[in-house]
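Run log, item B.
One chain of 131 residues. Sequence copied directly from the ordering sheet:
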Amino acid sequence: MDDKMIRNALELLSYCPLIFLVNGFWMLSNRQMFESVVNEIQLSTQQMSSDHCLTDIFRLTPTTPMLVLVFCLFNIIIMRRCCESRMKAWGFVISTNELNVDENLPNFFDAIKLSDAQDFVTESRYYRKNY
């Protein structure tokens, strides 16, 4: 049960970078704040125009790198969702194999000098006592 909850949480969290990039693009493309463009209204019942349109994404602005990252990340998410088996066949996955490497290394305290070992023990006792 816990494993499934963790997988679901990680699946949902994988969309966070896309959401943050879209939100950052929207904030940085605010024309009123960064270009001093203010659309005045005559009555409080009128809705103020934002002067945002779809053609704005084709203009070269300081927010263009964020927009490129949004498109790249969106494509990665689509590929991960639609073509998962093909991506696995091409090797674009994180391996689930666990490597057990035995390099025949000696015990830590056998490998260091006796004076250094005593320093490590003293330091360890100090940190356990104070922290």
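Observations after the first pass:
- The CA atoms of residues 15 and 77 lie 8 Å apart.
- The mean pLDDT is 83.
Flagged for discussion on Thursday.
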